[in-house]
Amino acid sequence: MNKPAKPADLTDAEFAELDELLATTPKPLQALDASMLDGYLCGVLVQPRLIEVDEWLPNIFDYDGGLLPDDVDAAWLARIKELVVRRHTALNRAMVENGWFDPVVLDLDEEAPPETAAEDEDAEQAQARATYDAMGPISRTLMPWVAGFQHAALCFPELSEMDDDAVMAALARLYRHLPAETPEEKEIVATLDREHPLKDLDDAIEELVVTVADLCDLTTEHRYHVENVRRDGPKVGRNDPCPCGSGRKYKQCHGAN
What are the two backbone dihedrals, phi and then psi, of residue 6, each rounded to the nearest 5 degrees? Predict the structure, then answer.
């Protein structure tokens, strides 16, 4: 008997289609783009518990937690779900079987001139721009993917709340590519840059993939742990009186199939 074929990963054309579909998410919702979505899916997969699609799917349509309207185009939603679930399945399979996956990272033009500040930019926006401009080209390239991963960690905080130094160290290696705002964050990034410098973008992508694979390994035991059911009393026999007090045998009452 032939085994059923495994769902294929998305083609380049399907990644582009998915990106375009997400871009048409009803306003004012702000959906993830393809790179952020890829990071988000990995963030979901390495959680210390299994998360079902109906729980993680809504978060891709708005970074701030907004929900799709009830009258959203059903065909549009179904196509997005089909593509996203296929990518989720392919990523999971690649991590489990190979310990490796190819992230969706858009290689930015390092020679592109920095954006100029808008005239109506407030102090907070100006500070955010300055923080972004202070990042190196490698981190600016990887930031959308890592921001998507962090989005999953914020939506499902179990990973970040794990009491595990190895997990925290792995998260720090990923979050080095996000804007460092506090003195503590800046010190962590400086330490990583000093002790674990990245030669180029390929080197950084390899470290990113290895780090996510490490997180997958570190959380596997938690993700697939099954709690043993502890009975508060002795097991009820099939011919014993039903505990509900009906007077009937258990097999004829609550034990009936």
Answer: -75, 145
